[in-house]
Write a structure and sequence with these properties.
With about 130 residues, the chain is mostly helical. It has 6 helices and no strands. About 10% of the residues are buried.
Length: about 130
């Protein structure tokens, strides 16, 4: 493809120079709902994968006669890990979904972050003066 054709295609798609105006799907509630659902599902997958890796590491390091090597309840443990990952993702415990949404919906995240800024500036200093007893 000719580079000029690519530039023309990007300009027609609204992604040329000054494409910031083309990125305005944040106002669309359907897009926000889909993006939020996808971000939460990704966080659930991320947490589930992390729990799976932690459990497999525990199994690898356990002794041969350990309860952690017992394959009897392995399927139930995997299902419980996936359910726990889903619950943690819906609570946005790790903040992965929030980080994804800040990138996908920059205009919606800016007003939400604005009220938090003054509260952070009035934080209590880390060092307190010594008190006499």
């Amino acid at each position: 493809m000719n580079p000029l054709d690519l530039t023309t295609t990007l300009n027609r798609a609204g992604m040329g120079p000054g494409h910031e105006a083309a990125i305005a799907p944040a106002a669309d509630p359907v897009f926000v709902a889909k993006a939020t659902k996808a971000a939460i599902e990704f966080e659930s997958f991320f947490i589930g994968n992390m729990l799976q890796q932690m459990r497999s590491g525990t199994r690898a390091m356990a002794d041969d006669d350990s309860v952690f090597k017992d394959p009897v309840n392995r399927d139930m443990q995997d299902m419980a890990d996936n359910m726990m990952a889903g619950q943690m993702a819906h609570q946005r415990a790790f903040g992965v979904a929030d980080a994804i949404l800040r990138q996908l919906l920059p205009s919606a995240a800016a007003p939400a972050a604005a009220p938090a800024a003054p509260a952070a500036s009035s934080a209590i200093p880390l060092q307190t003066p010594p008190q006499k007893i």
